[in-house]
Recover the amino acids of this structure.
């Protein structure tokens, strides 16, 4: 019987060849006698890696890191393996690696391991409301207007994604994930963006907030030429909070650890700041 365990290794350092990258880039490195590594591809891109061979935590950690593209996963796996011998003796396990990968592991006299991306069913996301683009894979950004890393993403990565959306290569969707426990303006800013959306100006208002333009929401609305009375009435309407809370509840159901978190189609992106990985995962999503 397989059991699902959440494995948090948390290291977004420099990437190696990895899932979603062209298959020819993948190399498991040297293997001991009797060991075998097999790969599965979709449209020429790495989709899954399977290992059969001697029980060797260091080797398995290295193969895991080669598959995910996160070097720190090697050491993280070794540490986890050393602490979970009792669990492993009970039978095969399935590990959710940071919400992005599924690791299947069975250890006895021989080890069997498989790494593949986790798939999130489209129906779980519900309706996308703030969308740029009319066709292509949906890239969903779960974000917080007061989060400095989200602001960095909006300034460094989203311009390229917006251009791709305009070219018809993807659809870009925004989802609220306000971390109000540490960001007091997260919910008010999200509500203000909903009020801007009611006047057809969500993305323009989003860009002002993410540029660090301050928290005077009516003043930002005036900069965009929005109807000030309608905007103020919307801000004061408790119903404006409902879509914000709904998005946050979805983020929690998905088990997202923080912001920004990005999905490319059904795949959670391991590193949302690496633009090349968007292209890799877009190609993989299109191949499904």
């Amino acid at each position: 019987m397989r059991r699902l365990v959440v494995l948090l290794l948390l290291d977004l350092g420099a990437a190696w060849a990895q899932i979603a990258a062209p298959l020819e880039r993948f190399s498991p490195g040297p293997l001991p006698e009797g060991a075998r590594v097999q790969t599965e591809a979709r449209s020429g891109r790495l989709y899954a890696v399977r290992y059969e061979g001697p029980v060797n935590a260091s080797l398995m950690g290295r193969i895991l890191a080669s598959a995910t593209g996160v070097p720190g996963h090697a050491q993280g796996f070794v540490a986890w393996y050393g602490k979970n011998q009792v669990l492993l003796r009970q039978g095969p396990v399935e590990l959710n690696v940071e919400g992005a990968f599924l690791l299947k592991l069975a250890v006895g006299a021989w080890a069997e391991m498989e790494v593949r991306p986790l798939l999130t069913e489209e129906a779980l996301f519900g309706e996308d409301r703030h969308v740029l683009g009319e066709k292509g894979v949906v890239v969903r950004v779960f974000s917080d207007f007061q989060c400095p890393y989200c602001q960095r993403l909006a300034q460094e990565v989203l311009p390229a994604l917006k251009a791709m959306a305009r070219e018809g290569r993807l659809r870009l969707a925004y989802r609220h994930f306000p971390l109000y426990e540490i960001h007091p303006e997260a919910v008010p800013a999200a509500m203000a963006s909903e009020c801007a959306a009611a006047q057809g100006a969500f993305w323009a208002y989003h860009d002002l907030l993410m540029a660090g333009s301050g928290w005077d929401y009516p003043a930002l609305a005036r900069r965009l030429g929005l109807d000030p009375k309608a905007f103020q009435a919307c801000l004061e309407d408790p119903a404006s909070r409902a879509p914000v809370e709904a998005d946050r509840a979805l983020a929690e159901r998905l088990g997202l650890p923080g912001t920004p978190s990005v999905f490319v189609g059904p795949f959670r992106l391991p590193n949302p700041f690496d633009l090349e990985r968007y292209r890799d995962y877009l190609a993989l999503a299109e191949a499904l």
In short: The first strand starts at residue 3 and ends at 7. The CA atoms of residues 42 and 288 lie 7 Å apart. Residues 1-16 have pLDDT under 50 and may be disordered. The radius of gyration is 21 Å.
